[in-house]
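Today's session is about reading a structure prediction critically. Students often jump straight to the picture, but the first step is always the sequence itself: look for stretches that repeat, for charged clusters, for runs of hydrophobic residues. Only then move on to the predicted structure, which in these notes is written as discrete structure tokens rather than atom positions. Here is the chain we will use throughout the hour.
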Amino acid sequence: MEYIGALQAVVTADDFDREPTAAELDAIECELPLIVAEVDLLDAQIKALDRLPNEVDARRVRRARRKVLAARRTLTNHVADVFGDGAA
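Below is the predicted structure for this chain, in token form.
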């Protein structure tokens, strides 16, 4: 059997091995409401799949979709305010 391992060890760290920069953490924090809204939508959709469809599940999914759209709108407006008009 032939050995297929690496011939030499990596000396320097790759880009994916580093910690996030302050700018990347700020971007994540800015997008966090949208991330949370999308997770809530996914949860509502999963709950709707687990049982027979009913009106409560439909309302839950609609409410979660509206929350995602509102978070996207807020994030887009924030980006437009930061980078000037026409950036978004």
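Discussion point for the tutorial: The two ends are 57 Å apart (CA to CA).
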